[in-house]
Amino acid sequence: MKLRLTRFPFASFHHSYLASAPYPKRHVLDHDTRLAVAQALLIETGAVKHPSALPSTNTQAKSLLKSAVHINILDYRRVREQGLNAIQRVLFKSRTALMKDVRDGRRVRLDEVKRLGLNHFLVDAY
Predict the structure, then answer these.
(1) pTM of this prediction?
(2) pLDDT per position in the chain (126 positions), as tens?
(3) How far apart are CA 55 and CA 35, in angstroms?
């Protein structure tokens, strides 16, 4: 089954959220927005196949993202407009492979990551 971004309200929320630049300098997401962004990321990356399986709390969503989704934020930002299949193609097979890629210098500034609400993709590289 081929997933389309527009079929899921969380994914379209995230799409409109990321498309609404410029972001405020000190952009702080409230609890509900952080959860909606995390749920959208889970659907976009294919970690959750159906909206009924989405976690209902921020802690559960963050835990699932950290354990199941290994993607470099640079790659994610580059391919997300190309659709779900493009995002799934740039996923790393393991956290270790992602850490190696980040250590090699392919990273985004921390303030930019936080401003976009992509904190869930952050990984300790050292």
Answers:
(1) 0.71
(2) 444 444 445 455 555 555 554 444 445 567 788 888 888 889 888 899 888 899 999 999 999 999 999 999 999 989 988 888 899 899 999 999 999 999 998 888 888 888 877 877 887 765
(3) 9
Whether 97 contacts 71, CB under 8 Å? no
Whether 94 and 69 have beta carbons less than 8 Å apart is answered as no
Chain CA centroid to CA 70, Å: 9
Beta-carbon contacts of 17 under 8 Å, excluding residues fewer than 6 positions away, are 33, 37, 40, 117
How many residues does the structure list for the chain?
Answer: 126
Distance, CA of 47 to CA of 54 (rounded, Å):
9
